[in-house]
Amino acid sequence: MKSKITWLIIASVSGLIALSLVQMYLIRNTYELKKEAFLSNTKDLVSTIDDSFTQVDSLRSLWRDHIVDITTAYIRLEIPREEVLIQFEAKTNQLDPIFKNVVSADLEKLGVPTSLKFQKRVRSIVIQDSLTNDTIYSRKNNTKTFILGDSFQGEEYQLGESTSFSECSSSKVVDGRQVIEVIRLNFETETIMNIEGWEKQVLLQMKGLLILSASIFLFVIGLLFYSIRNLILQKKIADIKTDFINNISHEFKTPLTALSIASNMLKTEVSNDEKAFGVISIIERQNLKLKKVLDQVLDKSISYNEIQLDQEQVGVEEFLTSLLDDFELTVKDQEVSLSRHLEVSSAIVLMDRFYISTSITNILENAVKYNHDEIKLKFSAEVNDKLIISIGDNGVGMSEKDQKHLFEKFYRITKDDTHDVKGLGLGLYYASQIVKAHHGSISVESKTGQGSLFTIVLPLQ
User: Fold this and answer.
1) 236 to each of 2, 109, 240, how far by Cα in Å?
2) What is the pLDDT of residues 60-95, one digit of tens each?
3) What DSSP character marks residue 415?
4) pLDDT greater than 80 at residue 35
5) Distant-in-sequence, close-in-space partners of 434: CB < 8 Å, separation ≥ 6
6) Structural contact between residues 125 and 67, judged by C-beta atoms closer than 8 angstroms
7) Residue 326, CB half-sphere, CA atoms under 13 Å: how many?
8) What is the DSSP string of 358-414?
9) Contact at 8 Å (CB) between 358 and 434?
10) 461/397 Cα distance (integer angstroms)
């Protein structure tokens, strides 16, 4: 039993861990979905700044036009190459504070979280002519950055990118001739955002789900702890009950044995006194009855794996006929009719004669106890590949609830919280354990007020 409880605890804890992992997986998926939805909504909202707010668009145009002007000057050899980036940096620094104020005001109008950082930055500035590309600036190959808006560290999300094209003419001498060449300027920018603490905002949106999940998890842990604690407690109570029954039974056996010896001696002494002899006979019968009850308690408390069988080849017909004859003798003073139907011919079964007879007798005695004045019992047996024994009665029957617990130790059917029939609740438990020890099965079919039918199935070998 202890090992079963250990395995049950291990299985329960494993199930709890598996449930926790599944719950964590689902919460993680929900978190990712909420995160994507939050970022997508924020991107959609912020992306409207370029389209809906003219001040931002004007500043961006000034920024772009400036790089076009100074690049054109460079193409026409009016300024050196290094001066292009120096002048562009100065213009960026000039526009940046204005851009930040405008964007901040626009974000506030849109209701965007104040923790959002927004910027436009240059990816590349490339001059293209008919023969070559002249890269003035590339963010990949330059540590310098040209940014309008907030600077930030950490994860960034791209809102969009754009490329502006501008053309200008330049004259040069080719093969002694003056040639006008069209030069194209590519100005690539991208819009980036970052939200500081967006994880906290997503978790706030999931607050209800997280609280509910934590509550369910704690409830399951509490329920599991309570169940295991009760199971261990019930095991201890069952062990104490069994030990108590065994101890008290053994304690009673010694005085009962002495009482039996004393009553036998008294019967010899008062054999001529009819009245005294009758009283002593009553004492002797009651003493034997009490010893029988104690023996039942000791024997019937054991489980099937503790029963030591002394099996032998038994002729089924002779065995059952003798058993039923003996039973009829014990109930001859009661209104009991027993019909027999044995289709066993010369079948032989490997069994422990004493234990199987005890099992069948317990069922027959129960059928008499839980019955009306006119008791009708039907006993049948047949053999195919197994021995099948059926015992039917016209007794009080039982409910489906009682049938589920009928073969449990100490279980007794009650009516209005009282036991109408005396007993220990061990007879059918003992019968089932004997059948299990023989690798057989026992079952019952019953309806309240319509009697019961017990079926025992035993292997032939």
Assistant:
1) 10, 70, 6
2) 888 888 888 888 888 878 888 888 888 988 988 898
3) B
4) no
5) 304, 307, 352, 355, 356, 358, 359
6) yes
7) 11
8) HHHHHHHHHHHHTS-SSEEEEEEEEESSEEEEEEEE-S----HHHHHHTTSTT----
9) yes
10) 33
Residue in the block written with tokens 């009850």: 293
Instruction: Give CA–CA dist 449/397, Å, rounded.
Output: 5
Structure-model confidence comparison of residues 301 and 120, the more confident one? 120
3-class DSSP state of 419: coil
The owner of tokens 């101890």 is 247
- Token output for 369: 């106890």
| Contact status, residue 375 vs residue 394, Cβ threshold 8 Å | yes
Summarize the chain as % helix, strand, coil (round to 5).
55, 25, 20
Close Cβ partners of 303 (under 8 Å, ≥ 6 residues apart): 433
**Angle of CA points 347, 349, 354, to nearest 5°:** 125
What percent of the chain is predicted at pLDDT more than 70?
83
The full DSSP string for 280-338 is HHHHHHHHHHHHHHHHHHHHHTS-GGG-----EEEEHHHHHHHHHHHHHHHTTTS-EEE
Judged against a pLDDT cut of 60, whether residue 408 lies above it is answered with: yes
Distance separating the N- and C-terminal Cα atoms of the chain? 29
Tens of pLDDT, residue by residue over 171-202, are 655 566 665 667 788 888 888 887 776 677 77
Alpha helices (runs of H) in 111-206, residue ranges in sequence order: 198-205
Average pLDDT rounded to a whole number, residues 159-164: 80
Q: Please enumerate, as own/partner, the contacts of 360-365 that have beta carbons within 8 Å and a separation of 24 or more.
A: 360/323, 360/389, 360/391, 360/431, 360/456, 361/323, 361/327, 362/427, 362/428, 362/430, 362/431, 363/391, 363/427, 363/428, 363/431, 363/454, 363/456, 364/327, 364/391, 365/427
- Length of the chain (residues): 461
Element (H, E) at 236: helix 207-269
- The confidence score (pLDDT) of residue 418 equals 37
Do residues 196 and 113 lie in contact, with contact meaning Cβ atoms separated by under 8 Å? no
Strand order through the sheet with 386-393: 336-343, 375-383, 386-393, 452-459, 441-446
Q: How far apart are CA 141 and CA 139, in angstroms?
A: 5
Residue of 380, 354, 379 whose CA lies nearest to 438: 354
